[in-house]
Design goal:
Layout (H helix, E strand, L loop, with lengths): L1 H17 L9 H29 L1
């Protein structure tokens, strides 16, 4: 459990360092969650677009 928590904290820190260009995100956990949400949303959008393209085509 402690190993997983450390990994999550390190990942969030790296994401904050890479994602400092996002305005208003000063909390590592907040920027990590918002970036994760954007990635999930993009994957879902691509999946929906693929299904629609398959049905239409």
């Amino acid at each position: 459990m402690r190993d997983s928590r450390t990994t999550i904290n390190e990942t969030a820190h790296h994401v904050k360092v890479d994602g400092t260009m996002v305005p208003g995100d000063t909390d590592p956990a907040g920027s990590f969650m918002s970036i994760t949400t954007l990635i999930v949303f993009a994957i879902l959008a691509l999946a929906v677009a693929g299904v629609v393209y398959f049905l239409v085509g």
